[in-house]
């Protein structure tokens, strides 16, 4: 207080003593408040922040140790690396951390032959953006808690023995762009929640191939996945028709719906998928004709429609898909002739199959196959083609870069010939 009054005197202010004292008391009170706030920060706020960070790191550590406790590691990699005596779990095998916070951002333990179940405590790794446990022997369900990971962008659990339904929480992760559950024992419908609750707007890769999923393909779910580029529902038990909504996914590059029980015709709107490079609809119960619009997919390199009930002829428009490397139309009810310029128009063919149909006509198309330098296999067995047994004489020697296996049939006997 005396110092404050002395400052007023030195500065030459004309305030009387009473007023000076009042002002100095207010300044002293304000200084006291500032000091009190600083003390609160030092003794209460900062320690709480430190405890919070410590707790978060401890949560990551506990989650990793919980995972380890539920798996068996035949190669001993986790036993050697994952232990609480290490200075930091960020140095553990398969664990990646953020440099500043030292939080787990990736857990990559693919191909380690791990046995056991997936700990639900992995759902506490709140900074994790990548989880890869593929190519192991993990069993049991996919933990619902994985749906609590707000930053997770890539989830790879393929090639395991996981069972049960796909948790609806997995499809509520707004950061996910990559989902692979390929080759497990997952069952039930693809979605177990209403479409309105699905919030994975940016997913680009979705594969549930080779499971035991059933039901129809959820059309509304597909309609909202505008960024989807790769979709594989192959080798499941899906029924019903191919949804029209699927053909509105204009960024789609790869579509595998083979080995299901799909019925109905191939929608003509499939011609909207102009970026499509691979299309596999084989081994279903599809009927109707091959849509001529498929020939307008100029990026198409792989077309397999075999083992269905397709009728009609081979559309000549398919010859416009000049990038085609594999075309399999075998085991259908196709009629008519084979386009004579098929080889000249599709010079990149490595496999051409239309065996087990009702095709007629001659072998004029065989000569054009000399333009397909990389052709490795030609399957024309079990049709009504005239002179099929004479096929080798139709192709000049040395026409192909590699040897070509030709499958033909005559009088009920299937034969294979090697053309070089």
UniProtKB/TrEMBL annotation:
Keyword tags: ATP-binding, Cell membrane, Glycoprotein, Leucine-rich repeat, Membrane, Nucleotide-binding, Receptor, Repeat, Signal, Transmembrane, Transmembrane helix
Which topology term describes how it sits in the membrane? Single-pass type I membrane protein
Where it mainly occurs, coarsely classed, is membrane
Where does the sequence pass through the membrane?
Answer: 27-46
Which residues belong to any copy of the Leucine-rich repeat-containing N-terminal plant-type domain? 58-98
UniProt keyword annotation of Cytoplasm present: no
GO molecular function terms listed in the Swiss-Prot or TrEMBL record:
ATP binding
- One short Pfam name that applies is LRR_1
Q: Which InterPro entries match?
A: Leu-rich_rpt (IPR001611), Leu-rich_rpt_typical-subtyp (IPR003591), LRR_dom_sf (IPR032675), LRR_N_plant-typ (IPR013210), LRRC69/RLP (IPR052595)
Location in or out of the cell: Cell membrane
Q: Which domain of life is it from?
A: Eukaryota
The protein's matches in SMART domains, at most eight in alphabetical order, are given as: LRR_TYP
GO cellular component, alphabetical, reads: plasma membrane
This protein's name? LRR receptor-like serine/threonine-protein kinase EFR
Q: What is the lineage of its organism?
A: Eukaryota, Viridiplantae, Streptophyta, Embryophyta, Tracheophyta
């Amino acid at each position: 207080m005396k110092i404050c009054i002395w400052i007023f005197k030195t500065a030459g202010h004309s305030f009387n003593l009473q007023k000076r004292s009042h002002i100095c008391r207010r300044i002293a009170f304000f200084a006291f408040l500032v000091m009190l706030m600083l003390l609160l920060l030092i003794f209460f706020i900062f320690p709480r922040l430190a405890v919070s960070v410590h707790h978060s790191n401890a949560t990551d550590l506990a989650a990793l140790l919980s995972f380890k406790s539920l798996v068996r590691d035949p190669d001993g990699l986790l036993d050697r690396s994952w232990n609480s005596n290490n200075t930091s779990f960020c140095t553990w095998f398969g664990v990646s951390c953020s440099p500043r916070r030292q939080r787990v951002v990736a857990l990559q333990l693919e191909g380690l032959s791990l046995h056991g179940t997936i700990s639900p405590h992995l759902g506490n790794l709140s900074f994790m953006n990548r989880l890869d446990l593929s190519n192991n022997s993990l069993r049991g369900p996919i933990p619902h808690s994985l749906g609590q990971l707000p930053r997770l962008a890539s989830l790879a659990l393929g090639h395991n023995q996981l069972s049960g339904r796909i948790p609806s929480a997995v499809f509520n992760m707004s950061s996910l762009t990559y989902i692979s559950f390929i080759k497990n024992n997952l069952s039930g419908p693809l979605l177990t929640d209403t479409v309105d609750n699905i919030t994975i707007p940016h997913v680009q890769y979705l594969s549930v191939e080779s499971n035991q999923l059933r039901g129809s393909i959820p059309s509304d779910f597909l309609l909202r996945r505008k960024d989807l580029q790769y979709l594989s529902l192959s080798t499941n038990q899906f029924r019903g028709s191919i949804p029209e909504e699927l053909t509105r996914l204009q960024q789609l590059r790869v579509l595998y719906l083979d080995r299901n029980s799909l019925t109905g015709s191939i929608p003509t709107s499939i011609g909207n998928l102009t970026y499509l490079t691979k299309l596999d609809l084989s081994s279903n119960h599809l009927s109707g004709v091959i849509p001529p619009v498929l020939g307008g997919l100029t990026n198409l390199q792989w077309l397999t429609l075999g083992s269905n009930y397709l009728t009609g002829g081979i559309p000549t428009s398919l010859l416009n898909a000049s990038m085609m490397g594999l075309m399999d139309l075998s085991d259908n009810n196709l009629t008519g002739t084979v386009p004579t310029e098929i080889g000249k128009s599709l010079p990149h063919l490595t496999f051409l199959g239309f065996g087990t149909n009702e095709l007629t006509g001659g072998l004029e198309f065989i000569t054009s196959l000399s333009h397909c330098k990389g052709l490795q296999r030609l399957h024309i067995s079990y049709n009504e083609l005239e002179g099929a047994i004479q096929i080798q004489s139709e192709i000049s020697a040395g026409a192909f870069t590699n040897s070509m296996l030709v499958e033909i049939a005559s009088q009920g006997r299937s034969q294979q010939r090697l053309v070089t």
